[in-house]
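Subject: mismatched residue count in predicted assembly?

I count 690 residues in my input, but I want to confirm that the predicted structure covers every chain. Input:
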Amino acid sequence: MEHLVLIGLNHRTAPLDVRQKAAFGAERLAGALRALRACEGVAEAAILSTCNRVELVATVEEPSAGVAAMEGFLAEGSGIGRGELRDILYRHHGDFAIRHVFRVASSLDSMILGEPQILGQVKSCYGAAVEAQTVGSRLNGLFQAAFRVAKRVRTETGIGEYPVSAGSAAVELARKVYGDLGRKRVLIVGAGEMGEVVAQHLADSGVGAIEVTNRSYAAAQELAGRFHGTAHPFERLRDALARADIVLTSTGAADILVGRELVREVWRDRKNEPMVFIDIAVPRNVDPAVSEIDGVFCYDVDDLSSVVEANLAERVKAAAAAEKIIDHEVRNFSNRLRATRSAPAAMQIQGRIEEICRAELERCLRRIGPQDAKAVEEMEAMAARIAAKIAHPLLMELRDSQNSPEEHASAALLMRLFQAKDAK
Amino acid sequence: MSWLLTATIVLYILGLLHSIFGFYRKRQVFVRLALGMVFAGFACHTAFLTLLGGARGHLPITNLSESLCFFAWCVSLAFMVANVRYRIHALGAFALPLVSALTILSQLAWDEQHTIPQFLRSGWVYFHAGAAFVAYAAFFLTSVAGVLYLVQEKELKGKNFHFLYFRLPPLQVCDELMRRFLFTGFVAMSLTIISGAIWAQQAWGRFWGWDPKETAALVTWAIYFILVNYRLSARWRGRWAAWISVVGLTSALATFGVNWGLHRYL
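Triage response: the counts match. Full output below for your records.
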């Protein structure tokens, strides 16, 4: 009889330096997996190791001994004292372990709620365990289920749809004005570091074209080269503005660079086409009064953080819905697990009854000599009916006792009564 | 046959409820279900109108209940075209209340009386009235898109990143929807007036008689004419166009409602 157990530490229970000590780098993961499986009582094993968490999942013969062995393994590998380890570890068993794996894969246990990378990390850790041949049918089933649950959470709650970084918030704002950005032109003014991060998000969102201008033309050219855009001298700012749908400013200028009158003129040249300003410079490069013009939208760093805040709040709401999905999936998974566990007993008992009926039928046929095909057919059908009728109530009893404490007792009793051989 | 109208109403209301729920919970599954229900409702609606027209021997637009029912059919059609083309998930929650209300009113006000006086019996009735209904439906959706635009613009300008910000479509999508339905409606309205004039010439020997409905239609047409012109010259877009489209709708509704004089039969 095998039990599913999980021990681990994460960003909530352990500080970064401890997590780093405990982490299993990619190069020593395969060796660690094999060593973990070699521990006393461990049947299957997988290790999830990222910068925010280290977790060991295993099926063991006896839960408390198994957990102790796993803790010993982790203490030995990391050099963290057992006492310290005891304080920072969480230990889950059975349905709680299943729930934990589902929550981690669905990014409900992440530092940034709903961040998408964790699923990929879980997948590659599972891949490593498959390669090291330390997982069997139980953990395979668990991980496949976790991937399915994570996908379901993502599509049904939309938890990942709310951007929670300044760069993706800027993209979201532009999308709320324009919809598709495929034919929109971005102008990057200045080559600040923060500007570059936001520019990268805009470039990744598939905008139509990118132009760069900067007081230093060389810096503009360098940045334009990186984003496959075109560089323009700073004196041509006005022309560049007239072409731009999205303007990203991040210069170190002390004064306003783009004033209201300038934007009004440019906007007229643009035949009143909308414009979006993302001003992440401090102090501001764009006069906030430009948003008084119809169709001109201007957002600064504070606005980007309030978008992020609003989106985080939406993620928390989505997470509540996700927990419900996970509750449901944990129940399903653990029921299925129980059903497959009692299936071998049921099959053996049924097989034994059928065997007896078939043997008696053959003996009878031998004794009465050759018969016509019709009669043989009838007798065979009768034997099959008898086997089915005897087996039916027994199988029902096995199924009904599945979730009760007598589960193992009744299975064992039936096996003994029918002299069915246990495969173990 | 009237069970078809009941089925239509039930399906539209189910579609409306799913739209509102999908809008509130941001669950696209419900919006898609809603669209399916409206499609089914539209099929029943079409069957009902076809059978009704067959039984009465004319296009069912001769009394109040018939024309409400027919108008609902036009709005429903326009809604589906807009939804299939632009996939605006928020549209159903705003356009379907009218469709449901019109079909319910039509059933409540059901009237077995239906006649077209002999002098109005002409092929023109189909074209003239058909075009008018298309124009009303298109103007209605123009203003729905206009309202969506105004609200989302307010959220974006006010940096109000809350409930509606997350749920309403992007501004330019609203603007594009507004433009398409404005032009469709304007063309249909022009055709209505022209065909009406020609028909009047044939029936009474004069093109124009300043009958109340004719006058109202002309005012409505003029409002939209100005709007179309300014849109084409790009002087008015966005907020202004959205406001005018809302004003235009009130005029269009007044035109729809003015039913005395020569148009007492609608």
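Chain B has two domains: 1-115, 119-266. Marking this ticket as 'not a bug'.
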